[in-house]
Structures are given as C-alpha cells and as structure tokens.
Amino acid sequence: MTESIDLSQPVPADEVLDAETPEAGKPSELDRKINEHFAGAVVRKDLVKAVKGNAIVPSYVLEYLLGQYAASDDEATIQAGIDRVRSILAQHYVHRNESELVKSRIREKGRFRIIDKVSVTLNEKDDVYQASFANLGIGGVLVDPGTVTANQKLLVGGVWCLCDIEYSHSDDSRIVPWVLGSLKPIQMSNFDYDGYLEARAKFTTDEWIDLLIQSIGFNPEMFGRRAKLLQLVRLIPFVERNYNLVELGPKGTGKSHIYSEFSPHGMLISGGEVTVPKLFVNNSNGRLGLVGYWDVVAFDEFAGKKKRADKALVDIMKNYMANKSFSRGVETLGAEASMVFVGNTSHTVPYMLKHSDLFDELPESYHDPAYLDRLHFYIPGWEVDTIRSEMFSAGYGFVVDYIAEVLKSMRNLDYSDRYQQHFTLGSDISTRDRDGIHKTFSGLMKLLYPHEQATTGEIEEILRFAVEGRKRVKDQILRIDATMPEVEFGYKSVESGWKGVRTLEEDQYPAYYHRGRPATSADDAEANAENTYGAGHDAASVPEAPVPVELFQGHHDFAENQQGISYETLLLPYLAGASEIELHDPYIRLGHQGRNLVELLAMIAAAKDPAEEINFKLFTVLDGDPEHQTKQLQMLSAIVQGAAQQGIKIDVAKDPGAHDRWIRTDTGWRINLGRGLDIFQKSDGGWFDFGTNRQEFRQVRAFGVTYIREATGDGVGEIV
Q1: What is the DSSP string of 59-89?
Q2: What is the pLDDT, as a whole number, of residue 658?
Q3: CA 15 – CA 12 distance, rounded (Å)
C-alpha cells in the first residue's frame, strides 16, 4: 500500500527558483510619470502585502486606507503611511477571535470605531432595518432607513465599512444594546473624470497598458502584449454593462482574484450557491437579488460536469443574458449586472478538441448552445500563466477604489462604433455575434483609449482580439449543434481588403479544431498535415507508418565521461505508446534532480499525440530535513502543474522500495535504472554551454540500465 504525497499547498516560486523580482523603493521612469500625473490616486502595489498581516479583508479595503495615508513616491511619507495603516488595522479591524475584546472596548468607551463587513436585513414584523457584523458577531443593530437607501448593497451580500458602534444597556431584554452611530462604506465618494482623460493623454499606449497591469497587481515585464490584453479583458465586466464573460483554464491562474479583490462593485459567489432568489428575485417578498445591486456577479468554480443546476435558474439566466431583464411576478425588471463564469479545466486543449469541445467541463445544463450563444467572449485560460511570486508588481498602480469608480462611471458610455470608419465586419456575422464583438471592442476601447485617441492600427488590434474571443465561443457551439450555419469571422479594411480571424488553438491544432468538418481550403489541408506529421509535410506527402523495430532486452553499462547519451535514445523507444508510466526514484529532491524529471516529462509530452493524456506515477522519498522537504514539495508541485498543462497527469507517492530505481509501463516494459534519472555529471557552464541545452553534449556518470519485457508479447516496440 503506497501513501500519496500532498502537493496541494500553493507554490511560492521564488523558493523553488532564483527568480528576480522588482526591487521595491526604486521607482522606474514609468512610476515617476504615474506619480506626476495621478498624484494621490496611485499607490505602490507591494504595500498591500506589507500591511495586510493576518487581516482577512479584500485588497480594495487596504488600498483605500493606503490611498489615504501612503499615496506618494516619497519613501518617508510611504513608511509613515504604512505605520499609520498598520495602526488603524491593529486598533479598529475586528478579528473574529478578538470579537469579545472589541465588544468590551465598545462597552467601556461607550463609542468605538471598527472596520467590519456589514449586512442589513428588513425585520418585517417590527418594520425596522437591522444590521449584522460579520467579524464582531453581533446582529439586530438598528439602522436608519436613510442609510439603507443610500447604500442598498448592504441588503445584498454586505459591504465593508468604517462604523462607529455605541453601547447602551437597557433592562428590557428585547432591546439590543448596540447602536450604530455612523456608517461609511469603504469606497471613493467622487473623482475628476475630465482630469483622468487629460492625464491619460500624457501616456503612450504601452505605458498605459503597463499602468493598468500594475493596477491589478502584476509586473508588466512578466507579460507579453497578448497576455496583457487577456488580463485586461477580465476588467471589461466592470466597464461594460451586461457583459457576459467565460474563462475556463487550469488551476492557479488567478481567474477569480479580480472579482473578489479588485472592486467594491463586484461580487464573487460559488457556482454551487446560486439560486433564483439570491441572483434575481425572491417572489415571496419581492426582494431583488444580486443582479439588481452589483455591477458584476462572478460565479467561481462554475465548471464540473456532475454539478446539478436548477432548470428554472438556467432559463431565467438565459433570458437575462440575452434581454437584460427578468420577471418578478407579472412585472418585468431590467438590470445592468455583467455575468462572469470562471472554472477549472482538467484536460489539455487538444484533448478537449479531439474528444469533445472547449466547454466540455461545464455542467450539463449549461452545456447548451442556447446558453453558450449568449456569451460575448471566451478567455482561453490555458494561455494564462500560473501565478508566481515574481509576477507581482512592486510598481505604482491606481488605488483600487479610484479605478473602480472610473470604470463604473464609463458603464454608461458606448464606444462600440469607433472602428466603423476604418473597418467593416463580415456580412455573415450574426446579430448576436456582432453584439459580442461590439461589447468587447467597446470595453477595451474604454479601458485603453478612454480619450478616443487611437491609431488605425491600435483600433484594428482590439477589434481583431474581440472577434477572436467571440469566434472561440461560436466555433465550439458549431461542434455541439450541427444545425447552426458556419460563420466566416473577419473584417474588411478600407485600405487592405478582407482579413480573416482565427483563434490561436485553431492554428495550433487544426486537425482537432476542425474535427467533423472538412478542410475548407488547401491551406487548411496543409495545416492539418503539418500539425499531425510535422513541418515540411503537405497533404500529398503524409509519411507511411513506421516499421516496427525490435527493441533490445538485457543489460547495458555506460562508462564515466561518455557523451551522446540522452533520455531520448535511452528510454523513449520503450516508453512509446504507453498511457500509464511508473517511475521509482527516491532521489527527486534537489534542483538538478527536478530538472532531470522535467526533461523526461518534456520528452514524453513532445512525443505523444497532443490530444491524448498520460498518467504518470512518481514514487519517491521525502527529504528528512523539514526545510529541505518544504522546498522539495514546492518543486514537485510546480512540476505537477507544468506537466498537467502538457497532458501528463502526475500522482506522487512515497516509494516503499526506498532505494530501487526503475520505470514500468502499461505496454509491458520494466527498465531498471542503476542511478535513476541522475546519470549526468554536474556542469556550471551556464546557458551558453551546449550541455545545458542538449543532453547528448553532457558527460555521464558510470551507470547501468536493464531492459526487461514483462508482458506477454513479441518484444516489438515502435520508434517515435
């Protein structure tokens, strides 16, 4: 019986790799420019972590306080501001385990200010509004109706607030002793929109994009242009009314972070917690749900084939996503909330394309063309990097509540026609497809060019990006519903004529992307052949199946300092065609040993069919030193995550053999490895050393390997 090793903890990559992170306290030229034109509205993004401690509060709450006291590029002012914010949190933030102490403070002082999440309900019996405080743990506190009218989100989900609480004991046990003296939501009250537009004009497009990326907490130097745009699409629901967005991809890419931390106008809920009364309306009392009060409602953990969904909810949601309205009895109500659906995928892109579609992970009730057709954009989450510590920014970005109010103020604007003097969408693009393209284009225009000073090339870039995101949705619907007509996505330029648009995965995996559909041109046939058989093959020159080669069985020794040895020649012929592989190696502990494992896995991934998956079982031994073991587990976790993205699912368990090193496949081969994977001599040649980049140029240690055919068969394998 083997014992699995838990790798579920997050991976701080800086403890696995020697990552270079931005040095705090040395503003870049961009940071100086940001402070010059947005003085008082920006904050250094690494300060949030510095002040958060163990306070369980959203980032926008902390940035609100930092914006009050540390919005400067002067180091002394920043340090004083950090100290002040820490002091405020220490004195006024309510920790759940200290609630009784805070209650005592309120009683002794008579009045005390706290930071807590406040929710309000209507007590119909007594016809009064009553507040409850999440961390303080008190309820039934009377709230003035005027306060509720001015802050209606208190009724739906709750709001983080600065509150003055008073204590007044009464002999009447029915009277709650707690009194709400004052309540101030943690969000900006006003801002200068014209000043925002004027300051935007001082930045180049690249500088502005980097400012926005820093504002959501990331270091722009770690992202390419396309990766930055994918991050910014996550903001469109905040700036565009009734925008329907989906993002499916691997775990750990930050899909839900923006919707929980970035804005006081967004609400993140678990996909399993969704009900008609909570989301739309409670018909028993007429109370509106989340869509009536929040700008963005995001559904976390939305994926999962086995999850059940209320059919009534799905029907109401489809109607709302299409018509921006829902019914309350006989009354039809409109709302402006954007809907975001985020979830994890468990398979690679080619696997999903070959066996199903890119919506394969959704619950059955939502795997429906009528629902999917209401989505405006599909963020390909598999393109988004797993979040690592070096990706976070130490530069300056907008204080969250400032940019949140900017985006909210632009929801009433429509920039969807700003491309039309330069480009025309294809004539067979449907009204619903156009709506999706227009809303994405409008959202990106408002984010990137709110001052409407974009060149023709910049307009084309975001138009093409908007078309691609909607095409990704429509192409998957076509795989599900064969009755829907195919659409040629693209646009016509006044200067250069028709330009077709393809998704990135369509170019990467054309043979699987067009499954069930014939190639529409010689170019597609060529692409299919190249994707399947490699560059240089055309549709007329598909290679014949390889001739089976009898593989060596027995023992072979290799001498120290020998070169020309690689996993590809040593192991790959025996691993070819296997879907289950076991590796027993007790020494996957140090960095170079982890690299050996990665090189083996990368070789397997490169040789297999991209649309198939391999189960890889690693049996190893944990380091006895607690500090070294922590680093080992972090390294193994990173390897598991990386392999999953290439279609190799790794399960790590403790090796009962302790010292034996061998590989076994489900095709009947056992390979005994004298030294395990650690056959190469250490080298410090750096990136310019040939051995760093190719195993064949490395010298090996003395080792032996034995090939044993365990299964019944003729011992014939196939060289890939």
Answers
A1: HHHHHHHHHHH--SS-HHHHHHHHHHHHHHH
A2: 64
A3: 6
